[in-house]
Specification:
Layout lengths: L2 H6 L18 H12 L10
């Protein structure tokens, strides 16, 4: 289904996220996120 058709049919939605977001689609992404975690700089970690 194309985006325009989905939008017209009310089957498409969006959410504005104002916090940390990083995809993990590639090995490079995974390494980057793992480095953040290992360094204690993981912005998604909200627990102590």
């Amino acid at each position: 289904m194309q985006f325009l058709t989905a939008a017209k049919d009310g089957q498409l939605a969006a959410y504005k996220h104002e916090s940390f977001w990083q995809c993990m689609d590639t090995q490079r992404d995974m390494v980057f996120l793992q480095e953040l975690w290992d360094e204690g700089n993981a912005p998604w970690k909200t627990w102590a």
